[in-house]
Specification:
alpha+beta, twelve-stranded mixed beta sheet, Aminopeptidase, about 375 residues, about 30% strand, globular
């Protein structure tokens, strides 16, 4: 129950245009979320413009995204986003709940979560995911932790976010590690990694592109991206299979370009068969010194040949020529994904944060 009777939970429509009376609530919400992000991370790494957020929410062909805000005394103080995958047999929904730090503890987060769960149930979804973020500087050296089914890490049991999730019937399904790499990569490190990768990856070549997948690779690349829900560690979490087509690849590229974060992609191709065997993506922002590594995948049949290292090295080389202002790269991996974490360690990635993927099953 919300402790303050002046709080209401209202739908925030996605505006057609910004800078209009109709866009005021959306723009206010973006500003509030940016304040929450800055409070959590201590920097603007996850601060976004209203234009970027509008582009992200406008992409609704494969995911339906509903936004509700908590309003207190006429001001937005929190939100829940409900993300529905639109595959025909989808059973999942993702809830993103955030409340301004100054007014936490009044039941507003619980009210937002309840609204999200209500919408998910109305949409016929039974498997929910929610997330908590834990910057490495906030993690205590000792104390009780909550662990997922797999992986060595744990989240602090006394963290307010952890207590909140547990008290509302969620279990910790998976922990993701985010890691940060300082760029440029030292020459000695790059040379050693490349020599090892080349020694193991005979019969493969790398191909790179920027912003848009070449038409000749669109179908094969879509098939490779489809493996992200089948070939990656997912112990303890519910995922819907995703059907990827060249059209979906184009939509994803357009969304990220609209956000001002177009993709730089490198794939490994098996020369004899022409099959795409691995890929990695970096979302390169239009400004700033931080980029984000998105998917990295080596298809199961091609593992053990250092292809993950090979494509990451080439993508970093391309990044250095394309955007030399980028000096930090963030990446996320399942805590139990030992092979990819070992690759990251070899590159010099250092701990940045832990993300809790919390699961709840609805009746």
């Amino acid at each position: 129950m919300v402790d303050d009777g002046d709080v209401s939970i209202v739908r925030v429509p996605l505006p057609e245009r910004l800078g209009t009376p109709e866009s005021a609530a959306f723009e206010e919400l973006v500003s509030v979320m940016n304040g929450i992000a800055y409070e959590l991370w201590g920097n603007d790494d996850f601060v976004y413009t209203a234009e970027a957020e509008q582009a992200s929410f406008r992409a609704q062909e494969f995911h339906e995204k509903l936004i509700f805000a908590a309003v207190l005394d006429g001001a937005i103080v929190g939100r829940v986003v409900v993300d529905f995958p639109l595959e025909e047999d989808a059973i999942t929904a993702t809830l993103l709940v955030d409340v301004a730090p100054a007014i936490r503890g009044r039941g507003i987060g619980a009210a937002l979560l309840a609204k999200g769960e209500e919408l998910a149930a109305d949409g016929g979804r039974t498997a929910l995911s929610a997330y908590t973020e834990h910057p490495v500087g906030s993690l205590p050296d000792g104390g009780d932790v909550v662990r997922a089914a797999a992986g060595p890490s744990g989240l602090p049991a006394d963290a307010p976010e952890v207590r909140f999730a547990l008290s509302h019937g969620y279990r910790l399904g998976q922990i993701e590690r985010s890691s940060q790499l300082t760029l440029p990569l030292p020459s000695a490190t790059a040379d050693a990694l490349l020599a090892d990768a080349v020694a193991h990856s005979g019969g493969y070549r790398t191909i790179s592109w920027w912003r848009r997948t070449p038409d000749e690779f669109a179908e094969a690349f879509a098939a490779l991206k489809e493996r992200m829900t089948t070939d990656v560690p997912q112990a303890g979490i519910a995922l819907d299979d995703e059907a990827w087509t060249p059209e979906r690849v184009r939509q994803h590229e357009d969304e990220l370009s609209g956000r001002g974060e177009p993709l730089l992609v490198t794939v490994a191709q098996h020369i004899q068969s022409g099959e795409l065997a691995a890929y990695t993506e970096i979302a390169v922002p239009d400004d700033g010194d931080k980029a984000e590594q998105y998917d990295t995948l080596v298809a199961a049949a091609h593992r053990g040949r250092r292809l993950g290292t090979l494509v990451k090295l080439e993508n970093l080389r391309r990044l250095g020529g394309l955007a030399p202002r980028i000096h930090r790269l963030l990446t996320w991996n399942a805590d139990e994904n030992t092979p990819m974490l070992a690759v990251n360690d070899a590159f010099g990635f250092r701990p940045h944060a832990l993300t809790g993927n919390w699961q709840k099953t609805l009746p």
